[in-house]
Amino acid sequence: MLRSFVFGAVVGGVAVWLWRDRIEAYLAERTRAVRERMADRMQAMENKTGALLDTVAEPLRRAEQGLEGAKAEITAKLHAGQEVIRPAAPGDER
Description:
Distance between the termini: 104 Å
Order of helices and strands: HH
Radius of gyration: 36 Å
Number of domains: 1
Strand content: under 5%
Largest sheet: none
Structural class: mainly alpha
Helix content: over 70%
Oligomer: single chain
């Protein structure tokens, strides 16, 4: 049993070595359509992903601008509040 397995492996290896060019050509021919379909699907996915990200980008920019404005306003109000409630230093008159 083990001898027949080793013999089969050796014969298979020799066959692949002898006919590797034909085997490669055959596989390239048989898988060409599959590779083309996969490349087309990847292109379609790239297009859809790009379109989705483009539609999301503008609202995110507007939200970021709104948050920056809110941050600036809150910071200004907090600073003004600090100035109102901070006790004056001794000898400092307001």
